[in-house]
Design goal:
single chain; 435 residues; TIM Barrel; Methylamine Dehydrogenase, Chain H; 2 domains; 4-stranded antiparallel beta sheet; 3-stranded parallel beta sheet; 5 helices; 26% strand
Length: 435
């Protein structure tokens, strides 16, 4: 039976003994793992740590230990059982007891491969290595992080904890080892590598995420729900477009016109801003394009018979062209937008729901409703949620300013970060877009 009081007493005695021999020794509290409050069996991690501090553990430790396991999900999977996701709550407990300057050590983390119920594929395990390190390094209180394990403990593929190594049981390397080596040769990620994206609600509410997360803003009585959005070039404004083409401007986004008074053949499904920010394009599900402000018309699929409806658009860096994507991943290029590939001839598990270009404009990413990512041109793959059990379908993808990462957002308001994308907070809302 676990006892916070007995453990804290042992911690105090052990720490005193250690420091009597080595005053400069760093004592880390025992790592807490994912658990729930079950009388006589387990204590939830945050409750255990709060109990430690209440019993006076603070002066005896120089760091708090946490086992930030999230398998089989990504590190930032938003769930209270996920000790990686709830690590900021641990820091809040420490801060409340005057220990906010001390680090939190991730004393055990990993993802098991094999055939077990909570196992991941070896490719997914390798992807988690990068996500884990980047996400952990963005915590201001992050201390050391320890991977479990070096080598699989047995050849029984059905036991998750016995298959968490970066080496297989026979000593051969899994892809995760190469991922570690690659990251060790790369510069350490920065704590301030960028804020999170904005999530756009069907009711015109918008939610800031990341380090500067704020309560919802906006919210309007609408004739039709919001279906798309775009940010101004300054990043200080947002346009939203409804299914009837009504435009709603916030911040330094100016109104340049709408199709709200026009009878449309098909609903508006997306929009994109011009390079100057003094105009925008709207696109309908039949590929009809409507230009406002300094946006020039470069073509449309309004007169074409499409296999699947258009679901989004993206502009080139010059603003003199655009791509449109259909739900089967078919790409249509206009102006100076070049074709780099599509999934039009591929049998998809789920439909494409979003498109964003690479930083250079020489490639693009497409995302499916299951979070599967498809890369073309110079757009690099940084990860996906294709192997994650999502509680709601993905609605879109937004790239970072550097183009070396992206966020994927679900209709339920959950945000997943990949590459150099910072950790973004999730919301409880009916989300339709991410910018």
């Amino acid at each position: 039976m676990p006892s916070v009081a007995r453990y804290t007493q042992l911690l105090k005695l052990g720490s005193a003994a250690i420091h009597s021999v080595d005053p400069g020794a760093l004592v880390v509290s025992g790592g807490v793992a994912p658990a729930v409050n079950a009388s006589g069996y387990s204590i939830a991690p945050n409750d255990f740590i709060a109990g430690m501090y209440a019993a006076g553990a603070g002066p005896s430790i120089q760091a708090v230990g946490v086992h930030p396991y999230s398998f089989p999900y990504v590190p930032t999977y938003p769930a209270q059982w996920n000790t990686f996701y709830t690590t900021p709550q641990v820091h809040a407990i420490m801060k409340a007891h005057g220990d906010g300057a001390k680090p939190i050590w991730g004393t055990e983390i990993g993802w098991g491969t094999g055939t077990g119920q909570k196992a991941v594929s070896e490719t997914q395990q390798a992807a988690m290595v990068g996500q884990m390190i980047r996400a952990w390094s963005r915590y201001s209180f992050a201390g050391n992080l320890f991977w479990y394990n070096w080598q699989d403990l047995s050849s029984n593929r059905n036991q998750v904890f016995e298959n968490m190594g970066v080496l297989r049981r026979d000593g051969s390397a899994k892809p995760a080892l190469a991922a570690f080596r690659s990251l060790l040769r790369s510069p350490a990620p920065s704590h301030s590598s960028g804020d999170g994206p904005w999530l756009i609600g069907a009711d015109a509410r918008m939610f800031a995420t990341g380090a500067n997360a704020t309560p919802a803003r906006g919210g309007l009585p609408l004739n039709r729900p919001i279906t798309g959005s775009a940010r101004t070039s300054s990043g200080k404004g947002i346009w939203m477009v409804a299914g009837d083409g009504g435009i709603f401007s916030f911040g330094d986004a100016k109104f340049y016109g709408s199709t709200g008074a026009i009878r449309l053949n098909r609903p508006i499904v997306g929009m994109a801003p011009t390079k100057s920010g003094r105009g925008y394009w709207l696109v309908a599900s039949d590929g009809g394009v409507f230009s406002f402000g300094d946006a020039k018309f470069y073509g449309s699929t309004g007169a074409m018979k499409l296999n699947r409806p258009i679901v989004g658009m993206a502009t080139t860096p010059t603003g003199r062209g655009y791509w449109m994507v259909a739900s089967d991943g078919g790409i249509f290029s206009f102006g100076d937008a070049k074709f780099y590939g599509s999934t039009g001839a591929i049998r998809l598990n789920r439909p494409i729901v979003g498109l964003t270009r690479s930083h250079t404009g020489k490639g693009y990413w497409m995302v499916a409703s299951d979070g599967g990512m498809f890369t073309f041109g110079d757009a690099k793959f940084y990860g996906s949620t294709a192997g994650v059990a999502l509680s709601a379908p993905v609605v879109g993808v937004a790239r970072t300013s550097s183009g070396k990462g992206y966020w994927i957002a679900t209709a339920g308001g959950t945000v997943y970060n990949f590459g150099d994308a910072g950790i973004a907070s999730s919301v409880n809302a009916n989300v339709v877009d991410v910018v």
